[in-house]
Amino acid sequence: MPSRTDKKLQKTKKKYKVNWLRTAIFAALVLMVIAGGIILGFTVHALKDLPDIEGVDFNNYSVTTKIMDKDGNYVEKLNSAENRIPVTFDEISPNAIAGLVAIEDQRFYDHNGVDVIRIGGAMLANLKAGRTVQGGSTIDQQLVGLVLLDRSEKSYTRKIREAALALKLDKMYSKDEIITFYLNRAYFGRGAYGIEAAANEFFSKSAKDLTIEESALLVGMIQNPSKWSPVSYPENALSRRNLVLSQMEDIGYLTKEQRKQFQATEITLNLNKNHTTNAEGQLVTTNQSFVDTVIEEALTALGIEDNDSELYTGGYVIYTTLDPNLQSYMYSYYDNDANFPRSEYGDLLQSSAVVIEPSSGAIRGLIGGRHVSGERQLNRVTQITRQTGSSIKPVAVYAPAFEAGYSPGSVMDDYPVNYNGHVFNNFTRACKGLMTYREAIKGSVNTVAVKVMEQIGVDTCYKFVENLGVTTLVPSGAANDKNLSLALGGLTKGMSPLELAGAYSACANDGVYIKPYTITKIENMNGVVLYEHKQEMHVAMKESTAYMVNSSLVSVCGESGGTGSRAKLSGRPTAGKTGTTTDRKDYWFAGYTPQYACVVWMGYDQPKQINSIKSAGGSCGPVFKAIMEYAHQGLAVKDFNKPSDVVSVTIDTKSGLLPSELTPAEYQRSELFTTSTVPKETSKVWVSRNVCAESGGLYTEYCPGEPVSKVFLQREVPWQNNIAQGVSAPADSALEVPEPCTIHNSSHSSSKTLTLHATLNGNNVELSWNSLGDNVFYELHRGTSSGFNASSANLLTQTDGYAYTDSIDGSQVYYYYVVAYSKATNAPISASNELSIAGSSYSGPATPVNGNTSTPSKPSGGNQQTSTGSLNLSLSSSAGSVTLQWSAPGADNYQYFIFRGETANFTANNSSQIAKDTVITSTSYTDTSVSSGHTYYYKVLASDRNDTSKNPISASGSVQVN
Ligand SMILES: [Zn+2]
């Protein structure tokens, strides 16, 4: 660039020829001024105390800090009051210079600050019209007006002062310098100060690249940026641009043909995507929330937290992780109220969202709230901590469980549980029963989350969450987070959306946690690097754990019954989880793909119950989906990495074990395990039972027709009745073994007494008895004394028939009775009379009489107790307790169920069952929940765990407690 002196020399030579004319007219003007005495007075007054132009640095724009995006492009200045980027003369397109001269000041290069000819012409025109229709201000005058003078001064006074200062200015600076000052100062609308910002704002380019039509449009706007705005008034803007083009032809910059050709083109804008007009009609930067976050980080990085103005005026260049297109989309989405639920209470229902790239921790987009205007307002991504509800479950419960060796195929009973008087229930109060962890995650089941956390330990879970970068957990004190409420997100202080997003990102990133960040590098104005980001990262969980979480959360969004279906991205595996606090004050959706993680929060700034939201999936889900669909545009579909130690195995979903022959198809599915946790045992929760075709109840000897064999669910640990008010049976209790048939029962067959007859024929006793129906079998016993107990040792036969011939020793007396059993249940139904037979050569006391029928007596035990069945149940009591003892029905693996009633015909069912919480495999049990003086009736049911297709064996008895 030539020095100022060279320029002045050039100018002097160029204008030599016209100087006489200008001087003459200027003299005439001065005469006219002098002629008007009043005007003179004004002039003298106006020229008093002129600003000191020598002291003004027209280049002095404050050096503000610049924000650059992820690709190193300039996006924003920190101080957003004036969006100006100063440029040099060489950085301005000649088209813009020519256009400005053509429209504002055609004799710019010929006058020395004041254009006398123009003033004269303007005065004539104004006199003619009787008002001001033309201004005579040169570019020089306008510049001093912009920089030096108080715009509120009266126009006449100001004009004189402008003229005087313009003459001075023209002596001090070259024409190129003056036009550069001018184009850097002028306001173009949409917040753009200076030609560079304007080119950037309207055409997304630099001033040096402006075309002829673009230049004409921009310089035409300077006198009235709103009237000639191509955004608000495109027709005005077009005619103004075409006027400028005509004037450019006038000054010889364009030929007539060029002028016509350019005037025929339409206006094509390429508006800066970072700036938009908000719902309130204000032009705002879409990057504000992101920039606010950058400021928070920069103050810490530079160690100037106590003096943030230093950051604004320090001239730093801050390189960030910003994706301006994504940010702009997020801003527009949040600016549209139609995308959000209705606000209540006169408060705006707030929301925030953040998008992170899990592979780097880079924050790509961030919205700190709805309808935020101005800098550094409340940032609802980084500065608030709220209850997370269920959105914490994947990272606080299931990831630690998978890390501990459990799998999405592990099974837990969805039924409320009481821990120290606190009953953890589901949001809906309904429970489904046995389910896999995957199902529990999908349906956001509270009872299972609490039980799983209890199983692996609160401390383990607490540490796991902390290790995922969450800093707001409270370890101790009156209110702390080391308790089971952690499983449901009932946190003491809550969690910030950013930290939740960071924790989820670790799952998306194969288990490696990376602390989220926005700043990659900070340079000072001389390009010296002051700060460079270093990733803070560590392995937070095994790859297999992360993959199991990912897979489970994909089910949340992609499978029927999942709570996240409205967040599912089309054609991409989408992992995610809803969160709703129990008081419905906070709603969340947190989720991710391998490429991006996103958290959306909704709630009021002063937490209040939100009635306009029905579900987190239906409110936050669509926001998540819209933002993530935009973020993934043009990206290849990517699946989560499946580690080599994760395998798929078909399991029984009611036990988590391998399916048995009885497992129904609908309760089998393929599930993930690590190679070391693959189940090897076969499921035992399904049993086969005979039921009455008519009632569906267990088949009894009284049921007509053939029994129907059906498969039922049999829990190892029965669910506990009446655990809390309003808790009903788990849904899958409908699959459990039913009660015996009630429409065909003994009351209809009470006449069926079992009577035993005998006839002695030589040394053969011919025994016979009556039939009790088709579904009964009989056991005939023989003893050598009256009142003997039935045992396998004295069993003569087990038969479906009604007769038996016994060979005896003729010198003895024998005692017989027969017991009838139900084929369906193996339970004893009836016992016959006991009869005695003396052999033909018997010569002992004459008490027994051949063929006589003694008083019917059931097989009986001691004084206080009776028992039947092949378990040989015996009951004994001592003060306050009853001890039950029985023998195992065989060498097999038996489990026993114990029932207690207060009447002889009590029903063995869930409510009469005792010791529900234990799996009884030993052959004795002491019941301490009894009262002295009462008589209790017990039933013991033995179930073969190795062959559950067998009917259980039962025994019953009664005892009076001492
Ligand atoms: Zn029946």
What does this structure look like?
By secondary structure, this protein is α+β, with helices and mostly antiparallel strands. Among the domains are: 4-35 and 82-263, Penicillin binding protein transpeptidase fold (Orthogonal Bundle); 385-495, Beta-lactamase; 644-683, no CATH class; 752-838, Immunoglobulin-like (Sandwich); 866-960, Immunoglobulin-like, CATH 2.60.40. The chain has 22 helices and 40 strands. The strands form 13 sheets. The chain has a five-stranded mixed sheet, covered by helices on one side. It is rod-shaped and about 175 Å long. The chain binds zinc ion. Zinc ion (ZN) binds at residues 692, 694-695, 697, 703, 741, 743-744.
Could you give the topology of this structure?
Blueprint: H1 4-15, H2 19-35, H3 37-47, E1 66-68, E2 74-77, E3 83-84, H4 94-104, H5 116-129, H6 139-147, H7 155-172, H8 175-185, E4 192-193, H9 195-203, H10 212-221, H11 234-250, H12 256-263, E5 275-277, E6 283-285, H13 288-302, H14 308-313, E7 317-320, H15 324-335, E8 350-357, E9 362-367, H16 393-403, E10 411-414, E11 417-419, E12 422-424, E13 433-436, H17 437-442, H18 446-456, H19 458-466, H20 497-508, E14 512-514, E15 519-523, E16 529-532, E17 537-539, H21 543-558, E18 575-580, E19 586-592, E20 597-603, H22 616-631, E21 646-652, E22 668-674, E23 686-691, E24 708-713, E25 756-761, E26 764-769, E27 776-783, E28 795-799, E29 803-807, E30 813-822, E31 828-831, E32 835-838, E33 866-868, E34 874-878, E35 881-885, E36 894-901, E37 913-914, E38 924-927, E39 935-944, E40 953-960
Parallel strand pairs: 1-7, 3-4
Antiparallel strand pairs: 1-2, 5-6, 7-15, 8-9, 8-20, 10-13, 11-12, 14-17, 15-16, 18-19, 19-20, 21-22, 23-24, 25-26, 26-29, 27-28, 27-30, 30-31, 30-32, 33-40, 34-35, 35-38, 36-37, 36-39, 39-40
Helix pairs in contact: 3-7, 4-10, 4-11, 6-7, 6-8, 10-11, 11-12, 15-22, 16-18, 16-19, 16-21
The protein binds zinc ion.
